[in-house]
Write a structure and sequence with these properties.
Layout lengths: L1 H5 L1 H11 L4 E6 L2 E6 L1 H10 L1 H4 E3 L3 H8 L8 H10 L5 H4 L3 H15 L5 E3 H18 L4 H17 L11 H30 L7 H6 L11 H32 L1 H7 L5 H4 L1 H10 L6 H8 L8 H5 L2 H13 L5 E6 L3 E3 L2 E3 L4 E5 L44 H16 L2 E5 L6 E3 L3 E3 L4 E6 L3
Parallel strand pairs: 2-8
Antiparallel strand pairs: 1-2, 3-5, 4-12, 5-8, 6-7, 9-12, 10-11
Helix pairs in contact: 5-11, 8-9, 8-20, 9-13, 10-11, 11-13, 13-19, 13-20, 16-17
């Protein structure tokens, strides 16, 4: 209860002071858990992920969505194979940037431009889920996406509740939603496999097709259930963490006008000084003008490219500082596979352990003036290793880092080149669940740029 009411940062830091700044034992979500702290703790966990730990999924998540029934093979090893198969690496994701940009434009045209105030968090979830359906499953029909997003919302809203499956509870609705989601995804996967067999395709034309052509170490194709598990995992990560990431970035762009101006130097000077800023950018890529220079270098219907994304260096530093202060995810649970000793404590086999962003992200030892929003922290070599961990680290580092970077930057570009932002609730409370959630959805007033 204290974790939810006081917030994870205070919960973690209070116990670090009371018990140990390196590791302490506590109880969370009905589990006895050892929490490893600071850069030293992060390093130990990430360096030993394949030696001492295995992934751990809460029963509520397994039953509600990921593992409603036993799947053949190991989900994590399959996911790793998909990652090492380049599906989520920059080289493969470059081709998706125009699609991301096109959908971002369409999304803003439909849900932002007609309104003077928007709630960013629910809209960002709508955008990230639709994009994931298009890119991962090649589902583009809004009606089909809607049939999938409805039950998916039930799942993500209730899968972290106490797993008491009684009618009327959030968890009961999550379980029902999970069944519908799985049926829909399995149907999509099965249909695609039949198409591949009928057309005798040997090279996948999209992510789903490539996954269906993937084999394990013994040359066995993945089953429909295994592929569905992977894609449901992708949808969960995209829907929850990435939408939260977009929201926290929009929050700080609205909260700090000087940061916004550095990301985009616009207003009435947009066209008057456009040539001047493009000239500066061509000589020395200026953070002051990067989004403006990119916008002015494009035709009205010309979509963003990888080369444009690579110019958004200051914008990405803004995003990274946003993730430091308001992490989209809180950490992850592992289960020990062997007994070991750490910082004088013996950790038995089968114990649950956690790494968390809240033991290092606001530690003044790592980040001077930790409450200050300062994107320059990420210039040069950036923070010391293992101090900044919004995506985890080691062998189980989030495979979707590059996907999240592209999605955030494309969305940021489209928003700041169209609007100035103002927080409708200046001191809106932030809630910490599986992801970071503004209490009222982050309502922003939109001030369109004059053309």
């Amino acid at each position: 209860m204290e974790f939810a009411f006081s917030g994870p940062q205070k919960f973690i830091q209070d116990r670090m002071r009371k018990y140990s700044p390196e590791v302490f034992m506590t109880s969370l979500l009905g589990q006895k858990i050892a929490i490893f702290c600071g850069a030293k703790g992060n390093k130990f966990l990430f360096m030993n992920d394949d030696k001492l730990f295995t992934s751990f999924w809460l029963q509520s998540m397994k039953k509600a969505l990921l593992f409603p029934e036993p799947a053949k093979g190991n989900f994590i090893s399959i996911l790793k194979r998909s990652y090492h198969g380049d599906f989520l690496k920059p080289e493969a994701l470059k081709q998706y940037i125009p699609a991301m940009d096109a959908l971002a434009r369409q999304h803003l045209d439909s849900y932002w431009i007609p309104n003077s105030v928007v709630e960013v968090f629910p809209l960002s979830k709508k955008y990230t889920f639709e994009l994931a359906c298009r890119l991962f499953l090649n589902v583009v029909d809004p009606a089909h996406i809607g049939k999938l997003s409805g039950p998916f919302t039930l799942v993500t809203s209730g899968m972290l509740y106490v797993p008491v499956n009684l009618p009327g509870t959030a968890y009961h609705r999550a379980v029902k939603g999970g069944k519908l989601v799985r049926e829909k995804v399995v149907s999509i996967v099965t249909k695609r496999r039949k198409e591949l067999v009928m057309n005798e395709e040997t090279e996948g034309r999209d992510l789903l097709s490539k996954m269906l052509l993937l084999t394990d170490e013994d040359g066995r194709f993945l089953s429909e259930m295994e592929v569905s598990n992977i894609f449901i995992g992708y949808l969960v990560a995209s829907y929850m963490t990435t939408s939260s990431a977009i929201t926290v970035v929009m929050n700080y762009l609205a909260e700090f006008p000087h940061v916004y101006r550095e990301v985009f130097k616009g207003d009435d000077l947009f066209f008057f000084f456009s040539f001047f800023f493009r000239f500066l950018a061509s000589k020395n890529q200026s953070s002051l003008a990067e989004q403006m220079a990119i916008a002015k270098s494009k035709g009205p219907d010309e979509l963003l490219t990888w080369e444009d994304i690579e110019k958004m260096k200051y914008s990405w530093n803004v995003a990274r500082e946003s993730f430091r202060l308001m992490p989209p995810a809180q950490g992850a649970i592992r289960e020990t596979t062997n007994e070991f000793t750490y910082a004088g404590f013996t950790i038995p086999k089968g114990s649950k352990i956690v790494w968390t962003v809240h033991s290092s992200h606001k530690n003044p030892e790592y980040f001077p003036e930790p409450e200050k929003f300062d994107p320059t922290r990420f210039e040069g070599s950036g923070p010391a290793p293992y101090t900044y961990v919004p995506f985890g680290g080691g062998s189980r580092i989030c495979p979707g880092i590059e996907y999240a970077r592209l999605e955030v930057l494309v969305f940021m570009h489209n928003v700041v080149t169209r609007f100035k932002l103002e927080k409708a609730i200046p001191n809106e409370k932030i809630l910490f669940h599986a992801e970071t959630v503004p209490a009222h959805g982050l309502p922003l007033r939109l001030h369109p740029h004059e053309k």
